[in-house]
Design goal:
Structural class of chain A: mainly alpha
Radius of gyration of chain A: 13 Å
Distance between the termini of chain B: 53 Å
Largest sheet of chain B: 8 strands, mixed
Cofactor (chain B): FAD
Distance between the termini of chain A: 22 Å
Shape of chain B: globular
Structural class of chain B: alpha+beta
Number of domains of chain B: 3
Radius of gyration of chain B: 24 Å
CATH topology of the largest domain in chain B: FAD/NAD(P)-binding domain
Keywords (chain B): FAD, Flavoprotein
Number of strands of chain A: 0
CATH architecture of the largest domain in chain B: 3-Layer(bba) Sandwich
Number of strands of chain B: 25
Shape of chain A: globular
Largest sheet of chain A: none
Protein name (chain B): FAD-dependent oxidoreductase
Helix content of chain A: 55-70%
Strand content of chain A: under 5%
Oligomer: heterodimer
Pfam family, one (chain B): FAD_binding_3
Strand content of chain B: 25-35%
GO molecular function, one term (chain B): oxidoreductase activity, acting on paired donors, with incorporation or reduction of molecular oxygen, NAD(P)H as one donor, and incorporation of one atom of oxygen
């Protein structure tokens, strides 16, 4: 089973963050919510490990 | 006071007849009384009677009420019905189906095939109106009675009072000829979701209520839709927030519309209004008649315990689920399957009373699994919070173009029998390489045999069976039946019972669940496993 990392894991964190913000440009609040939901589901599938996903959910709720 | 029915009947199956108990002067005594002549009560009574236990089944009507209600009967139910003597009738009358398709708006977003393998006598599912299922069970009772099975179904015997003692119960009954009483060592309560027995005993029934209403419109029409389960989320025809189309026998189609929480129930049941919804779905010019309509809400809940001393609860009286997944009647029939052999063994002095605690443990385990699946389906169909709705919609949107999201689309996970993992009756798995699906606690999957017929045909008699596949059988305890089969010649048997093992021995319970399995076993291990499975350890 994998393990969640909360240490830096992105080579270009500013670019990644900017991409996330840009993806929401011009969207209403509802559209943004829907985009976020789709994104979370896509990333969950990419992670592919329920153990890591549960750790991520717990970390996000802290 | 005259005796009043609460609902009209579809079939009059057990007309009232005055019993000798009513003229006995003092309460007649019975080993087992069952209250409730629905599918679970009759199946439990028949199971016991086929094992030689005298049973009296009491129902406040003379047959089964109108309305299709439970229409989906799962493979496991058909296998149990086969053992009880009416599996073939159910399949012959029913509509066989395996495939489900789920649509969002106009687009298909998910499909499933419930029986992707062959080598089973029975199909994954048949659709049949509940009254027919009950009728076939009662006809099986009549055939069993003709062969001497000690069972009696008493119509128009309404329970009006109950005294529960340490060693049995006293029932007060009302009939068209007035009241009488009887006593029983054991009482099985199969008296439905609103169980009067549960009320009389002051027992709780806790769980969740879902804030939604669903309209059933059974329509009679000639149509050439395939015999598949079709479910729409946010259908293009706008007849409801979701919709279901499913075929029943005799050109009847089950149509289900999700209406929401705040509705005017009476207005929604107006036939003109129902026809408007159905017209939108089927399109103009389709001729049909409304056969039966109903609006339902639902709960997911269960009793804390199913056994209360000499009173045992089964079916909807003990647990209730939403209809998505067909886990109501199907799980109730599995209650009957689990309870029958255990109570018979206790009454015959072969097992201690505590064997019945395993009914509680195993069927609560199953009920929790059914409630979990049913609750998840319902949360998807009827999201409870705005955020839950956002994720549900996101899954549906993604499913149109991303295959990973399709298995998350949940319109009901259809009933499969529970595996009794962790049951005190199981002996730890001792078959290295054995398939997971036949581990101790699992219901035996069927298999076509090289010798002809099917495996489950061979596992129908009362008592335990030692299934021997290529192994050397040890000396058996008295009364333990042995079944030697050639797994080498039967690919289904090999795949389902050997896996990568070369030989195996399976100890199989009377309800066709695996109690123990070994690569090799001696007389002592076998006797111990049998003792454990009978609650004697």
């Amino acid at each position: 089973m994998g393990k969640l990392t909360l240490d830096p894991n992105l080579a270009a964190p500013d670019d990644a963050y900017a991409a996330l913000i840009e993806a929401h440009e011009g969207l209403t609040r509802e559209e943004s919510e829907a985009l976020n939901a789709r994104l979370i589901l896509i990333l969950m599938n990419q992670v592919g490990d329920l153990h890591v996903i549960r750790e991520a959910l717990a970390a996000a709720r802290r | 006071m005259t005796y009043q029915d609460r609902y009209p009947l579809a079939f009059r199956l057990y007309p009232y007849a005055r019993s000798a108990d009513q003229d006995a002067g003092q309460p007649a005594h019975h080993p087992v009384a069952i209250v409730g002549g629905g599918p679970i009560g009759v199946a439990t009574g028949l199971d016991l009677a086929l094992r030689g236990v005298p049973v009296v089944v009491l129902d406040d009507h003379e047959g089964v009420g109108l309305g299709s209600r439970a229409i989906c009967f799962a493979k496991r139910t058909l296998e149990i019905a086969d053992r009880l003597g009416c599996g073939r009738q159910v399949v012959d009358k029913g509509v066989v189906w395996n495939r489900g398709r789920v649509f969002h708006d106009r687009d298909e977003v998910f499909s499933f095939d419930l029986l992707p393998e062959d080598g089973h006598r029975y199909p994954a599912f048949v659709n049949l109106q509940q009254p027919w299922f009950e009728r076939f069970l009662v006809e099986a009772v009549d055939r069993a009675k003709a062969q001497g099975a000690p069972i009696e179904i008493r119509g128009r015997n309404r329970l009006t009072g109950l005294e529960v003692g340490e060693d049995g119960v006293t029932l007060r009954l009302d009939t068209p000829d007035g009241p009488y009483s009887l006593t029983a060592d054991w009482l099985i309560a199969c008296d439905g979701a609103r169980s009067p027995i549960r009320e009389m005993m002051g027992l709780g029934f806790e769980g969740r209520v879902f804030e939604d209403n669903f309209l059933i419109a059974d329509v009679k029409m000639k149509a050439d839709f395939p015999t598949e389960r079709w479910f729409w989320f946010e259908p293009w025809f706008k007849s409801g927030a979701s919709a279901l189309l499913h075929k029943q026998p005799d050109d009847i189609w089950r149509i289900d519309f999700q209406l929401g929480w705040n509705i005017d129930r009476k207005a929604e049941l107006d036939p003109a209004r129902i026809r408007k919804r159905v017209d939108q779905m089927l399109g103009p010019g389709v001729e049909y008649e409304l056969d039966w309509t109903s609006i339902y809400t639902f709960q997911c809940r269960r009793m804390e315990r199913f056994r209360h001393g000499r009173v045992i609860f089964a079916g909807d009286a003990a647990h209730q689920v939403s209809p998505f997944g067909a886990r109501g009647a199907n799980s109730g029939i599995q209650d009957a399957d689990n309870l029958g052999w255990k109570l018979a063994a206790v009454l015959k002095g072969q097992a201690p009373e505590r064997l019945l605690d395993s009914y509680d443990a195993e069927r609560i385990h199953a009920a929790d699994e059914n409630i979990r699946n049913s609750t998840r389906s319902t949360d998807f169909i009827t999201p409870k919070t705005p955020q839950s709705r956002v994720f549900r919609d996101a899954v549906l949107q993604l499913a149109a173009h991303a295959s990973f999201a399709r298995p998350m689309v949940n319109s009901g996970r259809l009933s499969v029998p529970a595996v009794y993992d962790g049951s005190a009756l199981n002996t730890p798995d001792a078959l290295p390489g054995g398939p997971a699906r036949t581990r101790p606690g699992a219901p035996c999957p069927d298999a076509a045999l090289a010798e002809g017929g099917y495996l489950l045909d061979q596992l129908q008699e009362d008592g335990f069976t030692l299934l021997v596949l290529g192994a050397t059988p040890p000396t058996r305890p008295e009364g333990l039946r042995m079944l030697r089969l050639d797994a080498g010649a039967s690919p289904h048997l090999r795949d389902r019972y050997l896996g990568t093992a070369e030989r195996a021995l399976y100890l199989i319970r009377p309800d066709q669940h695996v109690a123990a399995r070994w690569a090799a076993c001696d007389a002592e291990k076998l006797a111990r496993a049998l003792d454990r499975a009978m609650g004697r350890l």
